[in-house]
Specification:
Pyrimidine Nucleoside Phosphorylase, Chain A, domain 2, Aldehyde Oxidoreductase, domain 3, four-stranded antiparallel sheet, 17 helices
Length: 461
């Protein structure tokens, strides 16, 4: 195989055959293609793109570079949810226990936080003792016994994707839709799923802020799933403000526990129920999203979801008593209110500034090898549209020291804008994308009015 010739063809806008993608992936995995040639090919892909057949071939080859979970013997539907990531997004922490307690196997494979976004693995590891590094065998056994495992990408799953992702990170080639779709789907399909629900974030704090690029990614991942016989449904959700109130690892676990006790913020519950309803319908547990939603609400009000979270924590070596007593989670040493600098309306709570603030406090990573402090972060009560007085507490900073406190206050001052008026925020769940196309999502009217009383009726699409 003449690698420079393949790079040249891609650079000039040609397409490579499935056999060529397979050979490239295999040779790269075997160490026969050096990183400098692969980096050049990635940059050619970044500028020239790949068609669906090429993307499917790359994804299949990355999937085939490692092992897969064989869950056929479980005898029930296996559904996961994947979010493109954001700030304050703790949905996985409650969704996995709720949905798995209702009879769906949830092999949830998540990532770590990077840049301004948080990661489910870091959040789970703030629970004392919690082990996310299960082997595939351990994950399979846990799925058999309790129906859910919350794990990271092990060395066994799509190892070529793991190396390629690190190379993309170092060569500014992450933001390529075919590369993202192939990367995510190679790992998701290795989970042995019978269905997948995607939460595609849109808005300023999203990985891909533009709505059109988000839809493009959703459509491509749906097509890749379909080609592999796995139905995929995507929902477009808002990331123009943090989701919920807590941003930071242990603080988000605490908020997820509140949600499982029926005391969570309405936006977190709404996104969780909407995604979970799709999972239950895909898995054949409910006939409609309305029925699915009712079952999830009962699961929360009866305490069944919280009990399942305890089971998962215990199975993975963590301290399950945090579910009854979240004060057992790591606690920050310095806690201080951030007060409104003026009277007015909350115009923006900018997720990127808040996410960067969590990193400045020590709760996020600039580089993959950085350690995170689980105790730090923010609890932000102010929501876009709220009318506030000067001096009113808008948020709380949780820090390990006085220097962190100053950085946290600066991040809140940058991230929260108080003005004389505010534009309406994006609708929380705006569109549903399936293989049949894209439709405006019809949320129940009470959801929007309860959360955003100022903008009753004025959301558009
Ligand atoms: N997450 C992944 O797993 N891969 C990407 O390429 C981007 C986000």
């Amino acid at each position: 195989m003449l690698v420079p010739r393949l790079i040249e063809r891609k650079r000039d806008g040609d397409r490579l055959s499935p056999g060529e993608w397979e050979a490239i992936t295999r040779s790269y995995g075997a160490g026969e293609i050096p990183d400098y040639q692969m980096a050049a090919l990635l940059m050619a892909i970044y500028f020239r793109g790949m068609d669906r057949e090429e993307t499917a071939a790359l994804m299949g080859a990355m999937l085939g570079s490692g092992a897969s979970l064989d869950l056929g013997g479980l005898g029930k539907a296996r559904i996961d949810k994947h979010s493109t990531g954001g700030v304050g997004d703790k949905v996985s922490l409650l969704l996995a226990p709720i949905v798995s307690s209702l009879g769906i196997a949830v092999p949830m494979m998540s990532g770590r936080g990077l840049g301004h976004t948080g990661g489910t693995l870091d959040k789970l590891e703030s629970i004392p003792g919690f082990r996310t590094g299960l082997s595939l065998d351990e994950a399979r056994r846990q799925l058999e016994t309790i129906g859910c495992a919350m794990i990271g990408q092990t060395g066994e799953i799509a190892p070529v994707d793991k190396r390629l992702y690190a190379l993309r990170d170092a060569t500014s080639t992450v933001e390529s839709i075919p590369l993202i779709a192939a990367s995510i789907m190679s790992k998701k399909l290795a989970e042995g799923l019978t269905g997948l629900v995607l939460d595609i974030k849109r808005g300023s704090g999203a990985f891909l802020p533009s709505f059109d690029r988000g839809v493009e990614l959703a459509e491509l991942m749906i097509a890749l799933g379909q080609a592999a016989g796995v139905p995929v449904v995507a929902l477009m959700t808002a990331m123009d403000r943090p989701l919920g109130r807590a941003c930071g690892n242990a603080l988000e676990v605490e908020e997820a526990i509140q949600c499982l006790h029926g005391e969570g913020p309405p936006d977190v519950m709404e996104v969780t129920y909407t995604l979970g309803a799709e999972m239950l319908v895909l898995g054949g547990i409910a006939r409609s999203v309305d029925e699915a939603r009712r079952r999830m609400e009962v699961c929360v009000s009866s305490g069944k979801g919280a009990e399942q979270f305890e089971r998962i924590i215990e199975a993975q070596g963590g301290d399950p008593s945090v579910v009854d007593d979240p004060s057992r989670l790591p606690q920050a040493k310095v806690v201080e209110f951030y007060a409104s600098p003026r009277q007015g309306v909350v115009a923006r709570v900018e997720p990127r500034a808040i996410g960067r603030g969590v990193t400045a406090l020590g709760g996020g990573r600039r580089r993959m090898e950085d350690a995170v402090d689980p105790s730090v972060g923010f609890v932000i009560r102010a929501r876009p549209g709220d009318v506030v007085k000067v001096g009113e507490p808008l948020a709380t900073v949780f820090s390990r020291d006085e220097a962190g406190l100053a950085a946290g206050m600066a991040a809140l001052s940058e991230g929260i804008t108080i003005a004389d008026e505010a534009d309406p925020p994006l609708p929380l769940v705006s569109h549903r994308v399936t293989r049949d196309g894209i439709a405006v999502y019809e949320a129940e009217p009470w959801v929007r009015t309860a959360e955003y009383p100022v903008y009753r009726g004025g959301f558009g699409t």
